[in-house]
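Re: that chain you flagged

S.,

Sorry for the slow reply, it's been a week of failed gels. I finally had a moment to sit down with the sequence you sent. For the record, here it is as I used it:
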Amino acid sequence: MNHEDLLVRYLYIPLAALAGAVSSLGARRWRTMTKAKMAMTVLMGATFAIFVTPWAAHQFIGVDESDARGTVALTYLFAIGAHVLLPWLIQRLERLIGAGDAQ
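Prediction finished late last night. Pasting the structure tokens below so you have them in one place:
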């Protein structure tokens, strides 16, 4: 593993995930959120992007593992999209198992 791989894996991907998660707060009513809820929102978006993006980029999108720019760019986009994608997936899952009827 060369120096650039280490930077990408341990610095650029987490920074892109954090920046994307913070950017996604702009699409939410962040002024009415508590600090704890903001922290959880950023943490959820960033961790989703850090752990899911590299796998999804290589498996489904076709980004080569050596393509650092592609992986980092997708990490940023996945962190922004986590706040749209995750609630949508949860709603679909609730409909699938019938849990949404109780609400």
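What I noticed first: The two ends are 50 Å apart (CA to CA).

Talk soon,
D.
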